[in-house]
Amino acid sequence: MIGARARRFVAAAAIVLGSTLIAAPAGVALDPVPDATAALRISHLYIAPDVTRVHVDPGLAAALPNDLKIAVLPASAGSADVLATETGRGLGASPQRPLTIGVVTVAEGRRLTMRAASSKYCRGAADAQAQAAAGAGRAEFQSSGDLTSIIQDFAQRLSETEVDRNDCSTAGASSSAGTVWAWIVVIATLGACGIGGLLLYRHRKRQRELDLARSRTRPYFDKLAHEINTLDPKDDQVAAQALADAAERFTSAGGQLAAADSVEKYGLARRTVLEGLHATRSAREALGVEPGPPLPPIEASQHEQLKVPQEVTVQGQRFQGYPSYTPGAPYYFGGGWGVPGGWYVVAFWETLPLGSVLGAGLSGGGLFGSYDEGYEGGQDLVREDFSSGGVSGSDGEVASGGDFGRGDGG
Fold it and tell me: CB–CB of 74/106 below 8 Å?
């Protein structure tokens, strides 16, 4: 009784097991990596038993380099590149043990794939050579089933591939360095454009300021030239001296305009021109000619001004001053440092040590001549300037890693 039951149980189990095996998909292979790894520990070439209709030259294994291993597996074993990486790890491939593992998978109809992994070459280098060798020999293999030429071609390509592992890290570093330099160039270019734009803005702003300062000076300069050229003092000594003062101021202003390259220098020239116009206004009054509209102030001074003609003492020297322009006193001083403002015979603030302080911001001219030059000399200068088109220069123009992770091949 028991024996019959046992026999029926064994029969049922056999049927179930047989059904399972029959139901399993055809061509599913067990993991081939352990077998390939074990075989490649003692040989350079392994061909899986279930790979049929494929052959290689019997002496090929012995002819392969010591650091090259080849496994030929069925396509059902999986992806050739994954199999190559796993087999290499199983064999202990590392920078200290440089190895290259080539895996050939063969499907029905002799459809071939070859991939590789390496700890000897830069990442992807061996794999690229494996695919190139497979592509070159695929037609021959499909007709003959002989893998010998493909494997030999692969070995030859590897022998011509750079091995120096420093190139791998250098290549990565060079790429990173190239990226960094590219960013540096971009930033430098943007910075240069920004600086250039700022400089251009400042230049244009300064030019506008210079143009404005010139426009505030040039009309008065032209008016002074016209006055000197048209007024005739006749026998009036007061008018003659006033026009001589005006001519000297005109000459001085012409030199200042020619050298003007800043708002401050144009301001100095304007001040000198206004001193000359005060002199021509005095000449008009002496000649009984309409003096014309009032002139703008030479400077807005907050200091004490002379109320009557008087001498002032500056550093032990005495200078005659007047509350308003007087022929023979063509230089205006705005006042300060204990000296009252007014019109003076001598521009003492430019000649005494005090001038280093006052002259920088307050002096108005008197640098290029004397009020004693005489009216006729001034007339000659003006006519000469006008005949040549104006005072020379008076416009003031200004001008790796390998395939096995950290430290892998090449």
Answer: yes
